[in-house]
Amino acid sequence: MKPFIYDYTHDQLLQWMKDNGEPSFRADQVYDWLYVKRVKSFEEMTNLPKGLRQKLTDQFEFVTLTEITKFESRDGTVKFLFGLHDNHAIETVIMRHNYGNSVCVTTQVGCRIGCTFCASTLGGLKRNLTAGEIVAQVVTAQQMLDATNERVSSIVIMGSGEPFENYEATMDFLRNMIHEKGLNIGQRHITVSTSGIVPSIYKFADENTQINLALSIHAPNDKLRSKLMPVNRRFPFEDVIQAIRYYLDKTGRRITFEYALIGGVNDQVEHAEELASVIKDMLCHVNLIPVNHVPERNYVRTPRNDIFAFAKVLEKHGINVTIRREQGHDIAAACGQLRAKHMESTAR
Questions:
Q1: Is the pTM of this model over 0.90?
Q2: Which positions fall inside the Radical SAM core domain (predicted)?
Q3: Is residue 87 left, alpha or beta, with left meaning phi > 0 and alpha meaning psi from -120 to 50?
Q4: Structural domains of the chain, with CATH
Q5: Annotation-wise, does 115 bind a ligand?
């Protein structure tokens, strides 16, 4: 199969033009058609010579995201289930906030991390997405927003999959998103979330970007984290925290700890005290996430009063904390839920 045109960063397009005997300014023109005008075929790139359009057609494909279904929530959240060229399916979510529109993208078909409270891991990992397949999710979201003269203002890499297990594709995606000749999303308006792939945390710290990093921590100690997140057996809690300290020292940027509260499992005051003892000297922010109910899992949501009690303990220790505002609850907007339903119906 030919590579996707969205797989290529601006630098790679420049090199392709050089290798194919084309002037370098043609890379700017192609990039403009892809990300500013957002065309869907090479034939629409009318300021390119016919011969170049033919070369592009011969050597590249456009990513095809087939809309299997789309749900719109009462709060404005839009969730897509897209079909890929090989009949796999992925989810993408547009979230509307008072500060702009955010797109949550997926980096893998399925997930092998195995978090016991998450629907994304049901069925395991099928394959990595290419950079272009991740890019296409944002471009498609932007094409939808074009109809109302809105724009994508921020991106969160928090959909299905572990982006740091698809590191190079994720980084090429990011390079395309932040390029000034493309969508030009501000680096500080992009957040990458990892479950704790230690080598990639070190690598990302050395990238010298302004892109935000979030760690799905979900427990204050090694034993409980291993129970909730099997990946912790590969990359133990202490090693993950050490990698985060390296990131903080290297970048000087604040880290976000994502903590899914699960009723009676990790949501007690003693868990909050233990978490505070681990992170209180870090430049950090804790985002408490009342766990979404997944029919295939047996966990229950933490009672409201216990959520506030947990937050109060962290605040007592001087830790910045927020409770995630729920969005898209009426459209199964939790990661993997829509795909899991699709897989089930397809299997039938």
A1: yes
A2: 97-330
A3: left
A4: 5-59 (1.10.150.530), 66-347 (3.20.20.70)
A5: yes
Q: Identify the active-site residue in 43, 67, 91, 207.
A: 91
91 is catalytic: yes
φ, ψ for residue 306, nearest 5 deg: -70, -35
Three-state DSSP class for 280?
Answer: coil
Strand residue runs (E) in 106-157: 108-110, 125-128, 152-157
User: Is 335 among the residues known to form the active site?
Assistant: yes
Residue type, 156: V
With helix as H, strand as E and coil as C, how does 25-61 read? HHHHHHHHHHHCCCCCCHHHCCCCCHHHHHHHHHHCE
What is the rounded CA–CA span in Å between residue 139 and residue 94?
12
Give, for all 348 residues of the chain, the pLDDT tens digit. Answer: 899 999 999 999 999 999 999 999 999 999 999 999 999 999 999 999 999 999 999 999 999 999 999 999 888 999 999 999 999 999 999 999 988 999 999 999 999 999 988 878 788 999 999 999 999 999 999 999 999 999 999 999 999 999 999 999 999 999 999 999 999 999 999 999 999 999 999 999 999 999 999 999 999 999 999 999 999 999 999 999 999 999 999 999 999 999 999 999 999 999 999 999 999 999 999 999 998 766 666 788 899 999 999 999 999 999 999 998 765 555 455 555 555 555 555 555
Residue 51: partners with Cβ closer than 8 Å, 6 or more residues away = none
Q: Which of 22, 104, 133, 335 is catalytic?
A: 335
Q: Whole-angstrom Cα distance, residue 81 to residue 70?
A: 6
